[in-house]
Write a structure and sequence with these properties.
about 180 residues, 6-stranded mixed β-sheet, two-stranded antiparallel ribbon
Length: about 180
Amino acid sequence: MAQTIHADSVFPVADVDREPRSFAFTATEAECTAIAERFSLKAVNKLTAEASLSAPGRGRGIMLSGHLQADIIQRCGVTLADVPEIVDSSFELMLVTPEEADRLDADEAYLDPEIPDYDALEGDKVPLGEILVQTLAVLMNPWPRAEGAELDTGNAQGVEVDAPETDKPNPFAALAGLRDKP
């Protein structure tokens, strides 16, 4: 049976073992309001997640995987109209030591599709609720647009939206000639 957690729930690292531990998260009305304010959303109508936490083996960190669902309303980046969105996605996150995260970053592991997303875990507690809230932020549309919304260039002449870049002369090219002068 899954343990119920909240947005501020943490889990002791010492209690994580190879056997996955299941958690269920359903944001309360107050938590939904706080999340909406935090991420500048018009509303978070629903946020739920089913997740499991395990330590697959030595040196492999702590794995958090699950499924998140949310019903949110954002504002259109062009018109400010309401843009409803349903987030329904699975996720996987590997929590590692800060040193291991630095090593993975140096190896550019974030570019490898075979390696799950990872983050540094500092301290002796896994911030389960916070990770689920941040997962929503990662999964939601970063540029919400109302249907039919288009950018208005106003009265600007010679401005094209989504126009291909043209080759422009380098403004510092004239300085290159001065570099070699005595």
